Amino acid sequence: MSNKTTLFLIGTLLFIGLFGFILPGDSPNKVTQFGLGAAHLVALYMLINNGTLRNTWFWALIQGCVLLVLLGAMFKIMHWPYGNLMVAVGLSIIGLAYLASFIRKPSKGVFDVLKLIWVWLNYGSIVLFLYRIIDAFAYYWTGIFSTLLFWGLVIYFAIQVFSEREIANETE
């Protein structure tokens, strides 16, 4: 799927999410959650798919840590011991692997720095909240800032995709 098609899909899902606000009854929450949640997942897929991280061994490490986080979440749901520890270790290693990948990258742009900040803000706030280092209020606001930063990254990426098209059209 091309970036333009993916961006169109994201826009459509965001429209569905916003459309949920005008529906009567309980369905607005479900439609809004579906539209915004699906748009978030598609945008995350687009950012990962266009990154250079997938071409390194860090990607395999991150996939293993995602598995550890999911396993830890299952432990937490079942109220078994070590769930918090598994989630915290998995998220910490993901953050460190992303940092190491960022450091090893030969050229770093604004987009790369913003992605690094987003990853650390997301995973760091979750780990700090799990161990009650930050309270729910601080976690709420880091979540809002993280979401705004994420959508800013998507918009920044979309602007770059469409500006490349205009440059290609001008050179023809």
Give the tally of β-strands. Answer: 0
Work out the count of structural domains.
2
Approximate shape: globular
Overall pLDDT: 86
* Approximate helicity band: over 70%
Radius of gyration (Å): 18 Å
Structure commentary:
With 172 residues, the chain is mostly helical. It has 2 domains: 1-50; 53-171. The chain has helices spanning 3-19, 27-49, 57-77, 83-104, 110-130, 136-171. Helix 1 (3-19) runs antiparallel to helix 2 (27-49) and helix 4 runs antiparallel to helix 5 (110-130). The model has no long low-confidence stretch (mean pLDDT 86).
Write the layout of secondary structure elements.
Layout: H1 3-19, H2 27-49, H3 57-77, H4 83-104, H5 110-130, H6 136-171
Helix pairs in contact: 1-2, 3-4, 4-5, 5-6
Characteristics:
single chain; 172 residues; mainly alpha; 2 domains
What's this entry about, in short?
The protein has 172 residues and is mainly alpha-helical. The chain folds into two domains: 50 residues; 119 residues.
